[in-house]
Design a protein that fits this description.
It contains 4 helices and 4 strands. The protein has 123 residues and is an alpha/beta fold.
């Protein structure tokens, strides 16, 4: 890697499920950043931490439920900066919701989208 993030501090949310947050955290570490990772799942964060270690990093693991305004999210920046220094890079990849395959519901929406649309008033 190029070391493009050498000496920088990153906080990555949503880094426990092997998706975008995990990939970004691993890449930032591989590029030399000190990386704090956060999500709800301790087990998932530990898996991401292992991948970061394989890339040469030493992650800070912070379990927090970002959907809880009274929870640990209010201290993420403080805890990250106390351990690693001022944050240079913030990646908000945390998400929650009912995910469905992209094909779910496609029939109905594709019929709608195939109809011609007029932008003229009264049409």
């Amino acid at each position: 890697m190029s070391g493009a993030c050498e000496g920088r501090v990153a906080l990555v949310t949503g880094a426990s499920r092997g998706g975008t947050g995990t990939a970004i955290a691993v890449r930032l570490a591989a590029e030399g950043a000190k990386v704090a990772i956060t999500a709800r799942s301790q087990a998932g964060l530990e898996e991401t931490a292992a991948r970061i270690a394989e890339a040469g990093g030493s992650p800070l693991v912070l379990v927090a439920d970002l959907s809880d305004p009274r929870g640990a999210r209010g201290r993420l920046v403080e805890r990250t900066e106390a351990a690693l220094g001022p944050i240079d890079i913030l990646v908000n990849s945390a998400a929650a919701g009912g995910y469905k395959p992209s094909s779910a519901g496609r029939r109905r929406s594709s019929r709608r989208s195939s109809r011609p649309t007029s932008l003229r008033r009264g049409s």
